[in-house]
């Protein structure tokens, strides 16, 4: 029976089916893993107060969010030097995010279930998101103004929220003054310096120019003074308030309110409140600047950098890819040359991305960029302008890398256009170019679009080459701003993929940053899968359309 | 608008006379477009060629031979002031100095030999110079031993200034230990041999006296509140040994090891860490019978000795520590310079290279790491008297016995790279034996770069091997089922579903592998291995019992939906493996697999190891292999399979005997392309391994691949340095490898396509 069954080959068919199932489980499992971990990051979790007593310590309180639970088999636990009180099969441990890094030294702590004497979620526990040192968990005692208590007890919460809103407003104002006004003045001053240097190089630096420049400089400096005063006033104002809080051990701590980003009491929130909070958290995440070496705050500059880089890349890659595909399908005689080109296209697709990075760094940055600097920016020397990794070179490198994607997709689109359409156009007297421009390309445009989307999806997720040609962990300014010439192709930029690598692997506090990395990953995955699905659906629609045309 | 259009068109058609120009313009435009499109198409080939040639262009200089060129020959400046004992040049190759046996320092122009300045060293009137020593060629320190047991230590130094925007170099003589001669031998005997090393805090002078004692004078700086310079305090000691035949003395810069050698080849190493109690550590003979030592110098870094002998061989000896922590002196390598005695050896100041000159005026420049001869030249003018390499090792001055100085320029940019240093085992300084090592940079100046690509290539192949081991079976089995057995309604979702896996950014896979999978695998190692057994087994068991299910139940599931049915089975199998793993561990491995492996087999466990990389990168290559192989299988002409089935073959027989055979070139090219992808993958290996360049076959150890190495080191490497070019070489290796793989795969695929269309 068994033998016959094996002989029929059906077990092997089942095995191949099993491989398909496993593949599907892997894909779905991976996406679920990212989704669950990434989405969990924004949920305002309850703050739990544990009463905890170690084997040798006194009973103490621990306040924090429960993050994870692990089961360690008894044998392994004993090997690691833990004792099991109840001789159970597993040692149960909880990872608690206790925050208060400035007091406790780290954000997280493992505690063992067997030592927990009790846990509760009192309403008065607060979570304070701070600009430095991560979160604070504890209780709010009072609010102070200029060192004098203005609210205590129940009142304190209301007052704290009100004052926080004002202080946050002031902070935003300071930020915007710093970034826009002061940034613009610095930028203009730098341009003035370069202009002066340029004139000096041309031996045109004379008295008239000197006076003119000095006058301009003075205006800028005056403006600067004014802004500086405004900033000083605001920051003095924002420093007036502070919170008095108590940590788990009931030690009183004073938190200046201008160091606080957010103040919440998750334990008092209803599910609806939490949902609103959740959406708000997500919005902040997407729109805010990063803080504390990227491990907290938002990822806006990374999103912005990725999008801008990908858009520039699309501008470059589309014409080249389309022309190459048109050549292969419409102009070339199928023969040796087309075979060689196809091999070249496949090689472009198969060359490791890091090799593109190396090529981009050596060829684009050092050779082309270096020569541009020598020819057009002699006044900036020895500081490089284009002779250093930056946005332009990153997009060009990725354009080269994604070229095959556009070519292959466009070619497929062109091959699906029925011959009769071209022949019809030619028979009516149109030239080949006109046929191409008026009928073939418009019909192939969804295919071109597909290729472009796939290329964008590929480029958005690529990191290795970018590490060499222009991505940095923290860019001081966005590559697009209000200063002439608005789009700064020479600037370095931030990128979502690199952000994941950097925060996940290079940051000093990986454990604390991990939820943020999951959230960033989720965003990136959603964008890329979304783009891919979109491309696939366009392609399928296209196929249907041409099938109808052919009949 | 659309209705108005036809009339307009009609008008243009009939205005033939005026549209003559327009027609010509149309034709011109047509031609221009055709030209542009052709150029655009061909530029794709250009792009590939450009990448290749650009990489080659950067790599090429390390393949170029070095050469030296004579640029000047002039009389020794101020010849009357004595014979040269030491020559040296400054950084810019403009000013050189010659120290004479009469205690003069003569600075002169490198290009013309014109004296710039002459300094007389403060030699006491009643004493003669009896010996001299330099304190390292890069330090500029010279010491003269005197007939009254004292010594003078001087330093030549150069100041750069830019008066009127032009560079001016001002030489000067300094006295780092004070201008007053130092008493080295308290008994006042003449110092016949001398060695000196200067440090910030401690300095040591060592001398052999005329009555054959070895005296050691160690000076330590006393910080003084009132005196900025501080003063030096001397501790004297005597090394108890027979010193009659000590002819060469070298002292390393750590002021720890003292090397004494006799002409007959007896080398003694003395540990002088405790300056008051020197201890003889090693004694050995370094030469063959009938040969004598003719010169001895340190290689840059003071770790290796370069010993030149009368048979024209220069050997590198170094202190080596073996696994038991025993030190011994070993000969790392030897260079045959010529047949004449080697008179002088001059180490490069910043690299592990050296210049050796023999009695006939033949010079050779060598690199110790690359173990090769770079330059061999014959200098006119007879026996060399003194020779020096410039600090950047791009020029040389050599004085010959006929009283001339030869000025040569040297072009020797990348001496440390050779075929053997890139791919073979190299015996590096302070290593117990020759080995493959990648360690490209360190903070110190005298670091020996270890640039062996072998461990990186090994790591690359190891990582891709395990990735393929995981990816190929899953992808191919999946492709077989999806391409041939699966119902079309399921296939239209499954195929894009798996392909979307390929769109996942590798940085995310790498991040998950490093931060989620690695700890997970570490905690559930047994479960992972149990998975390999239990999941296929549970599928088999399910399949076996499936046929006993009542017909009706079975027919509820349409043909080609097996994969969907199996999803819960696979999940159950996986769950079961992890549930069983503690019991398996308790039963077979004393409770903990990792401890058991370490204790039983000595297998260590790295958290970010090859297993993790294999799993993550296997996942990354699945979609690519799956997609191409599935295409190949799916496009096998239907009449072949139906024919086979009609002749009575079972579906599985048809699969293996007809479909797989026909599609095999496509499957092969799928595997090749997957392999190419695994070899070049960067982010996953970068994040999922510890990036240690070890050559270890164990699956539980980390590795470093070519691509990750480039990603890690390229941003820090100095443009056009040897390191930079070697990284480009690594990129070129990757490029060529994937080029071969992809070209092969594409040619096979093109042929397959033609075959199908003819079928």
TrEMBL record, chain A:
Q: Answer yes or no on keyword Ribonucleoprotein.
A: no
List, alphabetically, the Pfam families matched: BPD_transp_1 (PF00528)
The residue ranges crossing the membrane are 12-36, 299-328, 348-372, 392-414, 435-457, 516-538
Name where it's found.
Cell inner membrane; Cell membrane
Residue ranges that the Swiss-Prot or TrEMBL entry lists as coiled coil:
210-237
Q: Is Signal a UniProt keyword of this protein?
A: no
Give the main localization category.
membrane
Membrane topology note: Multi-pass membrane protein
Q: Which Gene3D superfamilies match?
A: MetI-like
Q: Which family does it belong to?
A: Belongs to the binding-protein-dependent transport system permease family. CysTW subfamily.
Among NCBIfam families, the record links this protein to: 3a0107s02c
The protein, known as: Phosphate transport system permease protein PstA
GN (gene name)? pstA
UniProtKB/TrEMBL annotation, chain B:
Highest taxon of source: Bacteria
Q: Which InterPro entries match?
A: MetI-like (IPR000515), MetI-like_sf (IPR035906), WD40_repeat_dom_sf (IPR036322)
Q: Which organism is it from?
A: Methylomonas rosea
Record bears the keyword Transport: yes
Fetch the Pfam families from UniProt: BPD_transp_1
The UniProt entry lists membrane topology as: Multi-pass membrane protein
Stretch forming the signal peptide? none
**Which family, according to UniProt?**
Belongs to the binding-protein-dependent transport system permease family.
Q: Where in the cell is it found?
A: Cell membrane
Q: What SUPFAM superfamilies does its record include? A: MetI-like, WD40 repeat-like
Q: Which UniProt keywords apply?
A: Membrane, Transmembrane, Transmembrane helix, Transport
- The chain positions of domain ABC transmembrane type-1 read 457-745
Could you identify this protein by its name? ABC transporter permease subunit
The transmembrane residues are 33-57, 465-486, 498-521, 527-549, 611-629, 658-679, 724-745
